[in-house]
Amino acid sequence: MVFLKSVASVFLAVVLIFTSACTNVIFQPSHEQFIDPGQIGVPVDELFIKSGDAVLHGWHLPASAPIRGTVLFLHGNGQNVSAHLGATYWLPKHGFEVYMFDYRGYGQSTGTPDIDGVQKDAGNMLAWTARESCLHGHKLTVLGHSFGASLAIYATASYPQKQRLNGLISVSAFSDYREISRDALSRHWFTRLFKWPLSLTISNRYRPAAFISEISPLPVYILHSPDDTIVPAYHVDKLFAAALPPKYRVDLVGDHNDAFNPESNRRKLLDILHTLGKRTGACT
């Protein structure tokens, strides 16, 4: 009996350790400032907005050319906005102002990240930025990368005032929280042994593939590179199959974290932003 209790205790300890590791597959925040916008000549306005019990820090990158639209950028699961500035700093010179925020527990944002809280943050970022954009006469385009794109799918689908939005651009999104956890756990031989039971500890209530159809009638652009080693192509297949028209699939080049570096990828993104910016209708 004592032996069985010891085995059970060890098993419970292993489960707790690897459950924590599985959670860390999703949330990898940092408080370090990786890039100082001022030091690289990128003007930003500091922002702080309320999101439930957290205060979110963000940046507004004003357009440096005649304004053509407003973009909300939702970054991936690692580090913070200062590490993701490279994805957006080049958009203002093309006439697009950018808003980007950290989720709770990231960067200067308060709180501790968990899936419910971070999804709430994404929804509050969208609502705040759409309202701000509308006040200046522009509809908002939602742009998300990786984890941020998956958050953006649910946030856009559940946003009640879709007339304020141009549409969604999803870059390298995954379709399912448990499946992407299994993909990540499969990269190491030891965690591979436990990938199925551990993945079940991850909440799937905001599963992107289950909600992407609710973005319609807004356009959704699903961008992904065949060379992506982080998010396998089957996630994109599932998202595109589940989405309703108008929907578009666009191939990029490069690996997962290179999505906004190649000039060809930037041109494709700009073409989409210009297309979405031509959508008409009242922004109320």
Automatic annotation (TrEMBL):
- Gene3D superfamilies from the entry? alpha/beta hydrolase
Q: Per the database record, which ranges form the Serine aminopeptidase S33 domain? A: 66-197
User: Which InterPro entries does the record associate with it?
Assistant: AB_hydrolase_fold, Hydrolase_4
The record's section on PANTHER family has: ALPHA/BETA HYDROLASE DOMAIN-CONTAINING PROTEIN (PTHR12277), PROTEIN ABHD13 (PTHR12277:SF81)
For this entry, the protein name equals Serine aminopeptidase S33 domain-containing protein
Give the originating organism.
Thiogranum longum
